[in-house]
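Input set for joint prediction.
Command: fold jointly, output tokens.
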Amino acid sequence: MRRCFGSWQNLGPTVVDWRCAVKLSDRGNAMPASPIRRLTPLADAAKAKGIKVFHLNIGQPDITTPPEMLEAVKAFSDPVLSYGPSAGLNETREAMAKYLRGIGVDVSANHVLVTQGGSEAILFAMAAICDPGDEIIVFEPFYTNYSGFACMLGVHLRAVQTKVEDGYHLPPVAQIEAKITPKTKAILWSSPGNPTGAVFTRQEVTALVELAKKHGLYAISDEAYREFCYDGHVATCVLDVAAELGCSDRAILIDSISKRFSACGARIGFLVTKNEELLAAILRFGQARLCPPTLEQYAATVGYSVIDKYVPPTIDEYRRRRDRVMEGLAKIPGATCAVPEGAFYVQPRLPVGDADAFAQWLLTDFQKDGKTVMVAPGNGFYATEGAGAEEVRIAYVLKEEDLQIAMDLLVEAIKQWNQR
Amino acid sequence: MRRCFGSWQNLGPTVVDWRCAVKLSDRGNAMPASPIRRLTPLADAAKAKGIKVFHLNIGQPDITTPPEMLEAVKAFSDPVLSYGPSAGLNETREAMAKYLRGIGVDVSANHVLVTQGGSEAILFAMAAICDPGDEIIVFEPFYTNYSGFACMLGVHLRAVQTKVEDGYHLPPVAQIEAKITPKTKAILWSSPGNPTGAVFTRQEVTALVELAKKHGLYAISDEAYREFCYDGHVATCVLDVAAELGCSDRAILIDSISKRFSACGARIGFLVTKNEELLAAILRFGQARLCPPTLEQYAATVGYSVIDKYVPPTIDEYRRRRDRVMEGLAKIPGATCAVPEGAFYVQPRLPVGDADAFAQWLLTDFQKDGKTVMVAPGNGFYATEGAGAEEVRIAYVLKEEDLQIAMDLLVEAIKQWNQR
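tokens >
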């Protein structure tokens, strides 16, 4: 019989079995709360006090979703909202493949699996290539939820640090190569970068894929922000580079309609690879969860038919917002910041000492004219203990006038924080 | 540097590093294909030849989704399809809690987490309580996708066999208790049962929760088919029994709107527990994947407002279908079958020797008047090697007249199969 311990006291040899406590798994305990969402209760408390909170913490765009996408959902006329195929609806996969061919990537619908957000694409990719104890190389600061999925699957993230002073671009290849161990299974990056705003050059992406080729690793590229590049920067698709280097078997593309179409609540992502064995394994994971949501796949399909009309003005809008945020940051003495080349985030180092405490204080103690601002503490985007302690992530997804107010609040708050 | 081997040949000391192959993880290789879906290519091939395939393999009801639910989606008027809360929309959680209170379960919206189908609820529950190598006790035949999530997470399912001759009800408690090891973390069951159709009595559920209480295990109950009980059988909710036994901390309810509202494509499930520490851990998993799909949560909310009108006639319909299937099975000499007490599946033992080969043959070689029938091979619902080899799962989710045709086809097919 299983040995049990009392939940409140050890009753010794007279221990009553049924008092033994249930416990969480180690991974359940280790699972990190989202640095983007974990301060939400403080924000709710501030709002309950009547304070207006400007959300710079979360990448939830206020830009209108293409109305055609919502119309496609409304046009759904089947009497039954039934399961779709585990790999996604054929027409949705075809729309995604066609979109990728349009940017020069040679793929067919057969290489595409529709997932429940880019999130599930990451989870499935990690599960299909890593066993517990295996390692994936990431570049910190990185998209925080990589940690969550790695924790769930027992995968270790080995972080290569990139620096705000370098615009969060890659360090010399030798520094990355030094992190590779026999347990390493993949290199994972996002470009345009969340939270960094860095757009890796074709040379950088090529260097990463070459490393993957040399060491038998997968190259996993999260390109959810592909279109959002500014000032002539261009996103490089991992599938394109891998084809060029003759190692398409190791390229995994993670993508999502969430940001491209301002449709985060649709939960439609996709995974693309030309490695058929891998695709088959991932489809088996997909079969276990049956299928992605049906209605939103119709929305996604239509989204790609209006992309040429929808996306260019959206890029312009985000660039204007970026500029507004940069103007605000320029008013903070001692802040260090690279101009974001893409995505809609910036991760500045702020002169606040402990940015986590500062982010909380913004919600609990600061307000000006009944307003405050919410940012995501930067340390949650690092695997290295203590790194990013002075950084915050700012998402510029609000209207320009709101961003203006939010940045003014941030400037004022840092002043007050340092005068406490 | 990592040691690499050529993918085609070992080139010895002159090995060219970049030829080293990428590999799947062990879990990716071990991941089972869904026995419900893996024969789909054969069905597609049969359809391509002009053969009409009656699908008894998958629990995809043809019953109309409540139109109010689809109307709720169409009424969505926000300009942005945005992220919802990670735990689900408050109104959806409240509707689910209210529904459970209506069946006598004392819970509030705070105990409810909305998930991407019941699938995600199972995945999160397993992840939060099991580390790799830990064990969960299940009763075979069991819902096949439990295997998939267990494989993904490195969890071992320890199967207690139930038998068609006993109507797939539980064996003596000592047989279950004998499977408990120091690695056991939970007992998991579905009642009304998929694929068995068994509805565990209150005594049976009480016995399972008492075992969980005695041994410090979680009691995970998958009650997606709660309403679908026939002939006076009543489903017992794990939360209710656990409250009665004073161990609410170990009860985890898995639920879903998929079957209740014939809305499988919505991908809305939920998890309910009064264990706050567990709920917090599961919410952290939920934060990593951001949120469940937004539009369908509005559908789910409205579903619960029409449940009293919608569900009773649906139960009557499924009971009639069950009877039609049982009439068909009665015409098969040598078939063994318990009358399903609930859900909309039956798992008979058929006189076909290898049911897997038979299920394939139905799609590749059999047809009558240009029609055939598809069933799910029963072995995929067992963890024990070789078990269930003569069984199939039949889902009675088609109209009565179609079920009649399908069962006649099955009777004829078995005759021909045995005369080959």
